[in-house]
Amino acid sequence: MTVFSFLGYNYYFMPKQSTQFDFGDSRTPRSSFTLYERIIEDRGSKYSVSIGLVKSRLDIETFLKTLKTKKKYAKATHNTWACRISKDGAIYESKLDDGETGAGMVILRILQKESVTDCVVCVTRWYGGVKLMNDRFKHVQNATKYAVDQL
Cβ atoms within 10 A of the Cβ of 13, count? Predict the structure, then answer.
C-alpha cells in the first residue's frame, strides 16, 4: 500500500490486484471535473457529487484541489471519494471515507458494478444536525449513481 499526503490528509493506494483487468469495455468521464450541487437533502444534511476523468495520482490531487478551491467544499463535513484507474490492462482502485465510515467503499462498489474506469467520484456532505444512521449510505449510493448516470 502506498501512502501520500495532500492538503493535510493521508491518501492510501492499494497495491495492484491481479484479479481486476480492463477489457476496454468500461465507461469514462468526458471532462476532468463536473460538479452536481445539492442533489439530495435529508433532515438538514445536504449532498453534492463531483466526477472527473483521472489517469494518475496527480490527476486525483488536481481534482480534489479543484473541488476544495470552493470554500464551502473545503469546509464540508465529509468529502468521501473513490477512484478506479486503468493502466497497462490492470485496474487500480483507491478510496477515502473522510470520517464517513464505509462510504468510500459504497462509491467504489458502484464504480465497479457500472464498469467505470479512469474516474474519481467525490460525494460531499454537509451535516445538518440530525444523524441519518443507515440512510447516509443510501444517499451516498444515490449521489454516486446520479453522477455515473450522467456519463
Answer: 17
Give the global pTM: 0.84
d(CA 87, CA 67): 25
* CATH T-level topology, domain 2-149: Ribosomal Protein S5; domain 2 (3.30.230)
Cα 10 to chain centroid distance, Å, stands at: 15
For the chain, what are the domain ranges? 2-149
pLDDT at residue 117 greater than cutoff 90: yes
